[in-house]
Amino acid sequence: MSQLQEFQDCLRNAKRIVALVGAGLSASSGLPTFRGSQGLWKNFNMIDLATPDAFYIDPGLVWQFYAWRRHQALKAQPNSGHYALAQLSKQTEKEFITITQNVDGLLTRAGHRKSGLHEIHGSLFELRCTSFTCTYIERNNYKDPLTKNLSDFGFDEDDLDTTMETLDGVDEPTFAAPQALLVDDLPKCPVCNTLMRPGVVWFGESLSLRTLDGIDGFLQAGPVDLIMVIGTSGTVYPANSYVDLVRRGGGAVAVFNTDIESEILRGDVANTWGFQGDAAEWLPKALD
Ligand code: BV8
Ligand code: ZN
């Protein structure tokens, strides 16, 4: 029996299923992954852009990066992998959740059932007030550009692998956007007028307890029969901890990735299938 037939038998009989999703699922929609050859973190230093310190030091630079990521995500379309997962999320006879590390909103736009979708690293389309005394959160903010100033920040695809034009238009291999020029035009809280931040989880920040509780609630409600690990390098904790948790509980693992360890492809890893290639191509076939 082929790996695909074995997997589809397992999927048919499975009652409780988890999908763990990473940037590879959105690669076919034209959004860069983080650690591949053209990865975001290859061309940008995540410490300069995706940490609380980076935002404290230069909020204008960080907002340029996230306004550019918002722009890219809004230009992108969900692909058939997103739609296949959204379809599965609507099958009432299955208990199914998707844990996504992606902040691009494409699974939501593909129609994934809201209650079954856990965006553990937040969303590009959420903004949060940075004041400790204010809890204002703006969800589903799809304005592009976010503010007039962030529309001409000079980020574009070709800059990705060389330099980022600083605001004064000089091409320098530096990220130092003149903060004073930007900070006045950055998004402000409508309640207390404090600077707003992107609603994503940065490195070194803890994940939302509400999100983690939601996932733990599902995992503790009964054994998971199958976890699909889709387009993720499994680098980031705690997202990467869910695979072993399901495996230890006796669940099967199916990896969908352009880059799969050979032992998985050889079938040497018990209860684990590997489907090498584009998740956008594999998922509609495998979940059909
Ligand atoms: C936490 C949001 C605890 C922002 C992201 C040392 C220093 C500092 C921290 C740590 C450290 N060591 C460990 C840590 C913890 C850290 C961590 O894991 N760091 C890693 C880098 C080592 N984790 C954290 O900080 C987390 N918080 O641990 O809190 C804590 C507790 C209490 C108090 C304080 C703290 C928070 C992590 C969240 C960081 N935010 N994103 C943004 O997006 O800008 S993470 C970022 O990486 C993205 O979310 C991304 O999704 C995620 C994971 O990457 P992947 O999705 O897997 O993407 P990647 O490019 O790596 O891989 C793509 C894969 O797809 C590849 O395998 C490729 O082969 C494949 N592929 C490509 N094309 C396709 C494909 N597959 C299929 N089809 C294709 N077409
Ligand atoms: Zn506020």
UniProtKB/TrEMBL annotation:
Subcellular location: Mitochondrion
Domain Deacetylase sirtuin-type: 1-288
Cellular component GO terms, alphabetical: mitochondrion; nucleus
Known cofactor(s): Zn(2+)
Cited CDD domains: SIRT5_Af1_CobB (cd01412)
Superkingdom of origin: Eukaryota
Keyword NAD among record annotations: yes
Chain residues that bind Zn(2+): 129, 134, 189, 192
Major location (coarse): mitochondrion
Cofactor note: Binds 1 zinc ion per subunit.
A Pfam family per the record: SIR2
Keyword Ribosomal protein: no
Positions of substrate binding: 66, 69
Keywords from the named record: Metal-binding, Mitochondrion, NAD, Transferase, Zinc
Binding site for NAD(+): 22-41, 101-104, 231-233, 279
Catalytic activity line of the entry: N(6)-succinyl-L-lysyl-[protein] + NAD(+) + H2O = 2''-O-succinyl-ADP-D-ribose + nicotinamide + L-lysyl-[protein]; N(6)-glutaryl-L-lysyl-[protein] + NAD(+) + H2O = 2''-O-glutaryl-ADP-D-ribose + nicotinamide + L-lysyl-[protein]; N(6)-malonyl-L-lysyl-[protein] + NAD(+) + H2O = 2''-O-malonyl-ADP-D-ribose + nicotinamide + L-lysyl-[protein]
Family: Belongs to the sirtuin family. Class III subfamily. Belongs to the sirtuin family. Class I subfamily.
Record remark on domains: In contrast to class I sirtuins, class III sirtuins have only weak deacetylase activity. Difference in substrate specificity is probably due to a larger hydrophobic pocket with 2 residues (Tyr-66 and Arg-69) that bind to malonylated and succinylated substrates and define the specificity.
Job description of the protein: NAD-dependent lysine demalonylase, desuccinylase and deglutarylase that specifically removes malonyl, succinyl and glutaryl groups on target proteins. Has weak NAD-dependent protein deacetylase activity; however this activity may not be physiologically relevant in vivo.
HAMAP family associated with the record: Sirtuin_ClassIII
Protein name stated in the entry: NAD-dependent protein deacylase
